[in-house]
C-alpha cells in the first residue's frame, strides 16, 4: 500500500509523505537538485530503515524486527517496481487520498504486530516507555520533517504534506486500536487472585475498590 501511496499520489502531486518515506523523498529530490543525479526513493527508504531495525531488535523484539525487515524489503521493492501513475495533479486530492492509503497500510501492519519501518519504530519504542498515542508521536516527528521540506522546497507543498501527515496519523489511530490506553472493571469476590493473574499474565496495573 505504501508503494501505491507514493507512486499514485505523493510523487504525482509533489506531496511529501510521512516518516522514513517522506525523508527518502526529500533525500532523493535533494540529490537530484544539488548533485545532478537521482537516488531512487526505494534505496534511500531502505538505507534509512536499516539503523532503525537495529533499534527495534533490541528495544521492541526479535519477531517484530524480522517481520519489519520483510515489510521494509517488500515496500522498497514495490516502490521501485510500481510505475508512477498520475491520477490527478491536484495536490490536495493527492494529499488526502495518499494519506488515507498510507495510514491504512501502517495501521493494518501495526495491528498484526508488524511495522512498516521508519517513525513507526520510534513511536512504538516511545509508546513502550511512556504509553503515549502512536499517531500523535508520529505527527510530531513528521512535523519536523515537513519543516525541512518547507525550508528546502517551498511552504506550499510542505503545507499540503502536513495534510497528508494529519490524515495518515488519524487513519493509523483508527485502524490500530492497540495503542489506546483502556480500562476494564472486574467485579469479583476474589480480588487478590485476579490482581495476581493480571500482574503475571498481562503485566498491567490494577486498582482494588472495596464496596463500590
Automatic annotation (TrEMBL):
<dbReference type="InterPro" id="IPR051461">
    <property type="entry name" value="UPF0750_membrane"/>
</dbReference>
<protein>
    <submittedName>
        <fullName>Integral membrane protein</fullName>
    </submittedName>
</protein>
<feature type="transmembrane region" description="Helical">
    <location>
        <begin position="64"/>
        <end position="86"/>
    </location>
</feature>
<feature type="transmembrane region" description="Helical">
    <location>
        <begin position="131"/>
        <end position="151"/>
    </location>
</feature>
<feature type="transmembrane region" description="Helical">
    <location>
        <begin position="92"/>
        <end position="110"/>
    </location>
</feature>
<feature type="transmembrane region" description="Helical">
    <location>
        <begin position="37"/>
        <end position="57"/>
    </location>
</feature>
<keyword id="KW-1133">Transmembrane helix</keyword>
<keyword id="KW-1003">Cell membrane</keyword>
<keyword id="KW-0812">Transmembrane</keyword>
<dbReference type="InterPro" id="IPR003740">
    <property type="entry name" value="YitT"/>
</dbReference>
<dbReference type="GO" id="GO:0005886">
    <property type="term" value="C:plasma membrane"/>
</dbReference>
<keyword id="KW-0472">Membrane</keyword>
<dbReference type="Pfam" id="PF02588">
    <property type="entry name" value="YitT_membrane"/>
</dbReference>
Amino acid at each position: 500500500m505504501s508503494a501505491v501511496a507514493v507512486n499514485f499520489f505523493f510523487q504525482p502531486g509533489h506531496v511529501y509523505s510521512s516518516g522514513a518515506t517522506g525523508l527518502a523523498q526529500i533525500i532523493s529530490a535533494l540529490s537530484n537538485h544539488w548533485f545532478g543525479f537521482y537516488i531512487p526513493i526505494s534505496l534511500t527508504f531502505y538505507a534509512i530503515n536499516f539503523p532503525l531495525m537495529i533499534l527495534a531488535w533490541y528495544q521492541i523484539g526479535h519477531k517484530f524486527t524480522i517481520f519489519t525487515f520483510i515489510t521494509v524489503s517488500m515496500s522498497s521493492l514495490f516502490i521501485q517496481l510500481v510505475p508512477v501513475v498520475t491520477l490527478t495533479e491536484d495536490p490536495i486530492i493527492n494529499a488526502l487520498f495518499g494519506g488515507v492509503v498510507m495510514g491504512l497500510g501502517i495501521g493494518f501492519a501495526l495491528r498484526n504486530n508488524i511495522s512498516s519501518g521508519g517513525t513507526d519504530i520510534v513511536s512504538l519504542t516511545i509508546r513502550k516507555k511512556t504509553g503515549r498515542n502512536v499517531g500523535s508521536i508520529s505527527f510530531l516527528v513528521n512535523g519536523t520533517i515537513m519543516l525541512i521540506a518547507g525550508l528546502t522546497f517551498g511552504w506550499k507543498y510542505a503545507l499540503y504534506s502536513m495534510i497528508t501527515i494529519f490524515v495518515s496519523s488519524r487513519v493509523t489511530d483508527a485502524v490500530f486500536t492497540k495503542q489506546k490506553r483502556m480500562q476494564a472493571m472486574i467485579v469479583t469476590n476474589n480480588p487478590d487472585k485476579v490482581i495476581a493473574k493480571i500482574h503475571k499474565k498481562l503485566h498491567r496495573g490494577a486498582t482494588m475498590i472495596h464496596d463500590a
